Structure formats: structure tokens, C-alpha cells
Amino acid sequence: MHEDFIAWVEQHRGTQYDLHTDHINPTFVKMLKTIGFDRNYTRGEGCYLWDGAGTKYLDLLTGWGVFMLGRNHPKVRQVLRQVLDAQSPNLVRMDCSILSGLAAEALVRHTPDGLDRVFFCNSGTETVETAIKFSRCATGRQKIIYCEHAFHGLTTGSLAINGAEFFRERFGDLLPHTEAVPFNDLVSLEKALAKQDAAAFILEPIQGKSCELVADGYLAEAQRLCRKAGTLLVVDEVQSGMGRTGKWFCFQHWPEVEPDIICVAKGLSGGFVPVGAVITRPRIMDAVFNSMERCVVHSNTFGQNDLAMAAALASIQVIEEDKLVENADELGRYTMARLAEIGKTCPFVTEVRGKGLMFGIDFARPENSLKLRLAWDMLHKLNFGVFGQMIIIPLLKKHHILTQVAGYHTEVIKFLPPLVATKQDMDWFLQAMQEVLADTQKFPGTAWDTVLGLAKNVVKA
Ligand SMILES: Cc1ncc(COP(=O)(O)O)c(C=O)c1O
Question: Could you tell me the distance, in angstroms and rounded to a whole number, from the CA of residue 180 to the centre of ligand 1?
Fold first, then answer.
């Protein structure tokens, strides 16, 4: 065993891309190198990352939304150290742990009355698998209605309700009895519910792949229609929950909405230990665990582990004490308003949308510039979906801001700043966006050369 484990790891620093090529995912390494994202990050603190050369980066990707408290939050670290040192009786399994009890109690402080039972698991997709099973069991029905363009995870159950063919193709038959409806379309939802055979309607109140938000009034009406049809309303708040949108849960922007099941993960971990939680009503939970024989009929080995529960508890406390929900709301309003103003100066920008600190910028073929339209067409003929690289590559390379396109085959770039970000951080980002968007209008120019070169490479690869 290495006495100084960190020193031993540091001795190997720099070999990670070769190791990943040999043993993990060479195609991913190739992609990183192609776009210049192989940065050899060595440290993370708060909203920032540092690479081996000491360059500081603003992290607006936050590990796909995990680092809501920023990286390595000192209060959560302190709690985790204490739990490790306490040699707690972790995962006894044939007992009830105090930490999971406290974590469940803390979580349901922020949900509507009646949503006070929690099932803990290990990831976002597992919350969705759980919601599917709970809904089917509680209603005795099979069908799950979901939205086009939805993303609920990549295990086979949640993949069956993924709204993009790209993720599903090549993986064979998935869960049967699913039906997609267009997002924000109540008429289609009513039609899908009409046969009264759906166990659940599941949706993200703000879709992660597009930053499309439910329209005002949509969720309340969807809830009414679901109740009428005996269908459970499931909100997937894996990405939008824990304060990200300026409320504890995004559905709470509409006070009359009280879903039957809430899926939470990502930010609940504090960025430390994988965790997911399904929050639901007693009658739903009791339908699943309806006898002593069935008291663990849905379960997992690592759910409720002490480190995950402590990280969750500490994260909830930090979000409460440091008023991070309020910060997400205020800073989100400021940033989106400024970004929309900047967007108006760029003919490629069609919309800035989102809620709180989950927002995106959408690009499309420009209508009022022949030159830029030709450039757009040339690029799209080579490769659809590469345009976003013209934004994210210079954001990283020139402005040291880490971002990513919102999904495959999309022209949306999504930003998920940590909830601890400040106005100064957002000004760093806004200034950078102003420059990057200005550069997209210089055709021919370096930004276009880079992205056209990239599109040709991707075509060849
Ligand atoms: C809304 C939503 N649901 C589910 C998931 C799946 O979570 P995980 O990657 O932890 O399985 C994600 C992941 O991005 C998500 O955004």
C-alpha cells in the first residue's frame, strides 16, 4: 500500500490520457484531444478548476450539474471527514441507519405536504427506474408516458423513455408500453391519457437537452389530467432540483403543482458521493412494500450508505444556510437578461432560455445575412451539430471557461454554473460570450476555420 497515496498518484500525473486510451474509452480520449479539452486538471475548488500549468478555469459544466455547491465545499468535506473518523456502522442492512433517517427528514422539509417518503439509491437513472416500478406497482398499469426530447438516464428502463433515437438505436428492444408526447402539448397528453391505461406521466420541468421550460399553467393542467385518468405525475428533477432553478424543485415555480413522485440526484451529492432519492407519497410506497415479505422487494446494496447520506445532509444544510436557492434565482435572472442582450447582437442566436442557473443559448441558420447563412450551410453540410464547438472551444481555450453542448445533434449550449457563483463569475462568462459571439460573425475567420476543420475531421473519423 502506498503510504502517501496522493504523492503516488501525482507521480503518474500526465499518463491519464494513455491509461484511458488503453483501459477505459479510447474514443472519448480522441474526442477530447480533437477539440483541445485534454487539459490535465489538477485541482478543483468552488467554481474553479486549475490545470497542471496553474491556469484557472471557470466551471460552468459542473460535472453535468453535480457540483452545485462548487467543488470540494469545505463544510461538506468536514462532515465527511467526521463520519469517516467516527467509524460508523455503515450499511448494516438489517437495521435502520440514523443518517438516512435524518437525510430523508431534511429532504422532505422542502417538498409539498404528503410527499414525505424517500427511497434512496445511487444515481439519477436509478431514481427513474424506481419511479417506473413504483408507478406500475401502485397503479397496476404498465404504460409510461414521456416527452419527446426527454432525457431520464441511460439504463434500459430510462432509455425506453428517452426522447432521442440517437441514444436508443443499436440497443435492441427496450421496455414496452411507453408512449411519447410532444413537450408542452396538453392536447396530446390528454389523448395519451384517455385510455386510462398509463401508470405514470414523467417529465423534466425543464428539459436538460434543450433548456425548454414547461409553459405557465402546463404542469397544473397536466396534473389535473393525470389525476382524472388515474395516472401518477412524476417529475424528474435530477438536474433541475436542489435549488438549481431558483426554487428547491423546479415544479415549485407553480405553487398548485404537487406531483406524486419526485426524482432527485446530482446536486444532492454535494459533488462527493453518488446518491439519488425518490420522494413520494405514503400510499405509493405502501403499495410497493405491502407486506413484511416484500419489505425490501425494491432495494439496492449501496443506497443509504453513510457517506452518501452525510454528503446529502450536509449539502442540504449548506443550500439552506448559504441561501443558494435565492442566489440561483437572482444570479440566474441577471445572467440570462444580460446574455439575451448580448445574444441580440449575434444573428445566429435565436433564444436564451432557462430558469435560475440552468439556462441555454440556442443557435439557428441566420435569416438576415447571406454571407453567414452560406457559412452555416457549408458547416451543416459537413456535419450537423458542430456549430456549438465554435462557442465552447474558444470559451475554454481563450477565456478558460468550461462548457459543453447540451446534447448530441443539437445547436443548444447549456450552462450549469455552481449555485455558489457570484456576479463577478457571471461577468467573466458574459464578457467572454460577447467576444465569442462577435467572432462567429467574422467569416472567413479563425473561428470558422477551426470549426470547419473540425467538421471535416469528424466526417473522416
Ligand atoms: C433529468 C435527468 N434525469 C436522469 C438523469 C440520469 O442521471 P445519472 O446520469 O445520474 O444516471 C439525468 C442525467 O443527466 C438527467 O439530467
Answer: 18
How many CB atoms neighbour CB 38 within 10 A?
Answer: 16
Dump pLDDT digits (tens) for 162-214. Answer: 999 999 999 999 999 999 999 999 999 999 999 999 999 999 999 999 999 99
Select from 314, 280, 313, 316 the least CA-distant residue to 298.
280
Going by C-alpha positions, the residue among 70, 134, 395 that lies closest to residue 288 is 134
Looking at every residue in the chain, the average pLDDT score rounds to 96
List, in sequence order, every residue forming a beta bridge with 57; answer none if it has no partner.
49
Is the pLDDT reported for residue 215 higher than 90? yes
- For residue 384, the model assigns a pLDDT of 75
Residue pointed to by grid coordinates 451543416: 380
User: Which domains does the chain possess?
Assistant: 39-72+324-460 (3.90.1150.10), 74-321 (3.40.640.10)
444 prior amide bond cis, ω within 30 = yes
Band (pLDDT 50/70/90 cuts) for residue 68 is very high
Residues 6+ apart with CB under 8 A from 39: 51, 57, 396
Residue 136: C-alpha distances to residues 118, 129, 319 (Å): 17, 11, 33
> What is the whole-number distance in angstroms between the Cα of residue 124 and the centre of ligand 1?
4
264 Cβ closer than 6 Å to some ligand 1 atom: no
Grid cell locating 268: 444532492
CB of residue 163 inside a 6 A radius of ligand 1: no
The verdict on the CB of residue 153 being under 6 Å from ligand 1 is yes
Sheet holding 117-121, edge to edge: 117-121, 276-280, 261-264, 232-236, 198-203, 143-147, 178-181
pLDDT of 459 over the 60 cut: no
In this prediction, residue 9 carries a pLDDT of: 95
Q: How does DSSP assign 357-376, residue by residue?
A: TEEEEEE---SS-HHHHHHH
At 201, list the grid cell. Answer: 406521466
